[in-house]
């Protein structure tokens, strides 16, 4: 039973990690400095790069959630040839 739930658990874990990291990048884009090493050369470039990264990562966080629905389908679920 646990082995069958593994893809779902992995998808939820991946989505949670991506969402958390995307929110951290959004925090940096809004000017947050917690966890930052050094000083950026350009504050505006730093914010723009983090804003773009946050958008990409947060959109990417949706993919594992979409895959959870696919794991219930036999063709997707039987990925190991069983």
Description:
The chain has 82 residues and is mainly alpha-helical. The chain has a domain at 21-77. Helices cover 72% and strands 0% of the residues. It contains four helices and no strands. Helix 1 packs antiparallel against helix 2 (43-60) and helix 1 packs antiparallel against helix 3 (62-70). The longest helix has 28 residues, at 2-29.
Write the layout of secondary structure elements.
Layout: H1 2-29, H2 43-60, H3 62-70, H4 74-77
Helix pairs in contact: 1-2, 1-3
Rg (CA only)? 17 Å
Q: Report the end-to-end length measured between terminal Cα atoms.
A: 15 Å
Number of strands: 0
Largest sheet: none
Count of separate DSSP helical elements? 4
User: What fraction of residues sit in β-strands?
Assistant: under 5%
Offer a concise description of the structure.
By secondary structure, the protein is mainly alpha-helical. Helices cover 72% and strands 0% of the residues. 7% of the residues are buried.
Features:
82 residues, mainly alpha
């Amino acid at each position: 039973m646990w082995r069958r739930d593994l893809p779902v658990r992995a998808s939820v874990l991946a989505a949670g990690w991506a969402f958390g990291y995307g929110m951290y990048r959004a925090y940096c884009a809004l000017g947050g400095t917690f966890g930052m090493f050094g000083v950026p050369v350009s504050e505006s470039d730093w914010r723009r790069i983090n804003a773009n990264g946050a958008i990409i990562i947060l959109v990417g966080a949706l993919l594992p959630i979409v895959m959870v629905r696919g794991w219930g389908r036999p063709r997707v679920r039987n990925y190991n040839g069983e």
